[in-house]
Write a structure and sequence with these properties.
The complex is a heterodimer of chains A (222) and B (79). By secondary structure, chain A is an alpha/beta fold. Chain A has one domain: Rossmann fold (3-Layer(aba) Sandwich). Chain A contains five helices and eleven strands. In chain A, β10 and β11 form a beta hairpin. Chain A is globular. Chain B has 79 residues and is an alpha+beta fold. Chain B has one domain: Mth169, Chain: A, CATH 3.30.1280. Chain B is 35% helix and 28% strand. Classes of the chains: A alpha/beta (222), B alpha+beta (79). Chains A and B meet through loops of A and α1 and α2 of B.
């Protein structure tokens, strides 16, 4: 699997993401810079977590208009898999590749802790390593993870099986509507999620419940 | 010419910061503050001198970057 990670000014989870991808695939991902205007041939593009451009204006707003993003959008339209985690998820909603928006946590507190996620759809390369209904333990670290979309969009997401993960009952850390933690685009080639699955792949403390996502991607895209 | 853009959250979108401000005001003794909604003001200094063209340009800036129309409304003032 040829993976690339787009680094923006203020990204800070690209190293963790690179280690998780390398552990799963045996290959170091290519690090890309937000000001690049060309993409190499890739099977997976990752937008990592962090605080791109200091979260100024809105989280992910400036990053979504970076010189590299038109290329990322074109690649996504060709069907190249795109994964956005935390700030990466915010960037994906700001580009319009995913619907809705991520707002300030409803309790106004930065949430940095373990949460439980329920796997809602395991029929995608991102989630095939899980069983539908699995409850996994992962970590979140964000101040703006409160997913919001209008009712019609939410109904459509549910009807089309585009919810990847929900916070398990009682663990919603941010007030996200309908407990949504991660969603797919229509073709299920783009996934955005708030939790850092790259931080729970057995490399250090924290567990390994994120590992099946990376192993599943390698299996599908290698 | 100058343009001022007001960005506010749409009706129905939860505004926890506005709620926190409201609670603070009430705790300070300001009675009768039933609701607070907060937003942003963005001031632009433009080379354009034609108001119609300036407004059209700022409108494009709003839809493409300054506001997220999924959750926010915007209003443009020229001066």
């Amino acid at each position: 699997m040829k993976a690339g990670i787009v680094v923006f000014p203020g990204s800070n989870r690209e190293g963790d993401m690179a280690r998780a991808l390398e552990q799963a695939s045996g290959k170091k991902p290519t690090m890309l810079w937000h000001a690049d205007t060309e993409l190499p041939d890739l099977d997976l593009i990752v937008l990592p977590g962090g605080f791109s451009h200091g979260d100024y204006l809105r989280c992910g707003a400036m990053a979504a208009r970076s010189p590299i993003m038109p290329e990322v959008i074109k690649a996504a339209e060709r069907g190249v898999r795109v994964l956005g985690v935390c700030n990466g998820f915010q960037i994906l909603t700001e580009t319009g590749l995913l619907p809705g928006a991520l707002m300030r946590n409803s309790n106004l507190k930065f949430a940095c802790r373990f949460v439980k996620l329920k796997v809602e759809n395991n029929a995608t390369p991102f989630t095939q390593g899980y069983n539908k209904g699995d409850v996994i333990q992962v970590v979140v670290a964000h101040g703006d993870g409160n997913y919001f979309a209008d009712e019609a969009t939410l109904d459509r997401l549910e009807q089309d099986d585009r919810i990847a993960f929900r916070y398990a009952e009682g663990t919603n850390p941010n007030g996200a509507i309908r407990d949504i933690a991660g969603i797919f685009n229509e073709r299920k080639t783009v996934l955005g999620l708030m939790p850092h699955l790259e931080n729970v792949v057995g490399l250090a403390a924290g567990g390994d419940d994120g590992k099946p996502m990376f192993d599943g991607l390698v299996k599908a895209l290698a | 010419m100058k343009a001022r853009v007001h960005v506010t959250l749409k009706t129905g979108v939860l505004d926890p910061q506005g709620k926190a401000i409201q609670h603070a005001l009430v705790n300070m003794g300001f009675a009768g503050v039933n609701e607070v909604r907060q937003g942003k003001v963005i001031e632009l200094e433009l080379a354009e001198t034609d108001p119609t063209k300036a407004k059209a340009a700022v409108d494009a800036m709003c839809t493409r970057l300054l506001a997220n129309t999924v959750i926010e409304n915007y209003r443009i003032e020229l001066a």
